[in-house]
Design goal:
5-stranded mixed beta sheet, 23 strands
Length: 437
């Protein structure tokens, strides 16, 4: 993509309304613009990052055996009355009346909707287990939306749901999601620590939230130091095998967010306890028959008896992760994207767009990099060099390839690593080889 044609309205100054780093940088980098309180339009750069995150989430859900579907954003209130949550959920739920005076709502989550779909479609224990998911927009009318996409009212979420005949099966489904989440966040360059959590309005008796460590995180977290050394990604995980040892490894050491931390009963000595800020990026729940029983979702067993299915739900904030990754990966100059979620692989900078030889060389580099499979953002504008460098640092692409008349005359370009700041001069062919390695 040529920057001269790209819609990326960057800002030089920090917006006054932005309270945290991710909000500030997303506005400055032209990733989002606010529509109303807690509701954002996603501009091309931000949307591209979100789609990359979404794809990683999708691939890991598929690998764990989940099947993708799509449920509506608007749900009938009667479903929530069946579960008993319609009046209990509170003012965060946006309630709507349609033209026929039917009570509707903009879904904050989908436990009721998926339970209805299941009960109307599945009759026998032979059809279980089932793991279903979708990636869909949600709305929760926060009292005080703040921090940009980190605590917005409208957000993109992956929510999956498990259905099993008994508690042992439900635990196996829970473990699949637990491990899938570790893999998902690791692929995004994040170290996510599972911590025992309150079940909140979802309900149930077992829950873990996945927290990434960031100095600007929203809550205080406490954990055993060994958790920071664990390798959470294993490409050879057998999701049909016994995953309990992996879960046990991650839950055997102390980890708690501030609302769960009890200094008086913490097993880690105070001088060893890691105390950091953290951001929740995922949450998993096992809640048994909390929804299946009041909504009459049951299956017939081999002996003819009927049992209410055991259920769980598992959420990842896809749009929230865009902000979370920035909070965990930035410096004084801007965003530092992990390669897996970066909107582009490399930024190509033409230092002198008005120079015919320089423009011709850069046009050739652009074509060759695209042909090699690289996704390139080509700064072909007539901005001054300092502004081009600042802009590329702000948007945080992993690599910058810089070409100017002086270097081209000597047969070299400059390759900059955004994360380390290291620069080296080398031939274009060598740079291309390094970028595609």
């Amino acid at each position: 993509m040529r920057l001269s044609r790209y819609f990326m309205p960057t800002l030089k100054d920090n917006p006054s309304e932005a309270e945290i780093v991710s909000h500030r940088l997303m506005l400055r980098a032209g990733m989002v613009r606010q529509s109303s309180a807690g509701i954002y339009s996603w501009l091309p750069l931000g949307y591209k990052v979100m789609r990359k995150i979404e794809q990683i989430v999708r691939e890991e859900q598929d690998a764990a055996g989940c099947q993708e579907m799509l449920m509506p954003t608007i749900q009938p209130a009667d479903l929530w009355r069946e579960s008993g949550r319609y009046d209990d959920y509170g003012q965060e739920m946006l309630r709507i009346t349609d033209r026929r005076e039917r009570d509707m709502l903009y879904g904050p989550t989908n436990e009721e909707q998926i339970t209805q779909i299941f009960r109307d479609s599945v009759r026998s224990y032979r059809e279980l287990p089932k793991l279903l998911y979708h990636i869909q927009w949600k709305f929760r009318d926060e009292v005080r939306p703040r921090f940009g996409v980190m605590r917005g009212r409208e957000f993109l979420m992956k929510d999956s749901y498990s259905f099993d005949v008994d508690k042992d099966g439900a635990r196996r489904s829970y473990n699949k999601m637990f491990v899938a989440y570790l893999r998902t966040f690791a692929r995004m360059g994040l170290q996510a620590i599972p911590m025992q959590a309150d079940t909140g309005p979802i309900g149930g008796d077992m829950s873990h939230e996945f927290i990434i460590l960031a100095d600007t995180g929203e809550s205080e977290v406490y954990c055993h130091p060994d958790l920071l050394t664990f390798d959470s990604f294993n490409a050879d995980v057998d999701f049909e095998g016994d995953l309990q040892p992996i879960v046990d490894k991650w839950t055997s050491l102390y980890a708690a967010a501030d609302e769960k931390h009890d200094p008086g009963n913490c097993p880690v000595p105070a001088d060893q306890l890691i105390t950091r800020r953290g951001i929740e990026v995922g949450h998993i729940f096992y809640f048994g028959d909390k929804y299946s029983k009041p909504m009459d979702a049951k299956v017939t067993m081999a002996d003819g008896s009927e049992v209410f299915v055991e259920m769980g739900s598992y959420g990842i904030g896809v749009s929230r992760l865009v902000g979370g990754i920035i909070e965990a990966s930035h410096d004084e100059n801007g965003i530092v994207w992990p390669a897996s979620v970066s909107p582009y692989d490399v930024g190509l900078i033409n230092l002198k767009a008005g120079d015919d030889a320089c423009a011709s060389a850069c046009d050739g580099f652009f074509s060759q990099m695209k042909a090699a499979g690289l996704d390139v953002l080509y700064d072909d504008t007539d901005e001054r060099a300092g502004a081009k460098f600042a802009n590329m640092d702000l948007i945080g692409l992993p690599w910058q390839l810089i070409a100017g008349p002086r270097g081209l005359k000597n047969g070299v370009v400059e390759l900059k690593n955004r994360a380390s700041g290291e620069r080296e001069e080398l031939s274009f062919e060598s740079a291309l080889s390094k970028l595609t390695a």
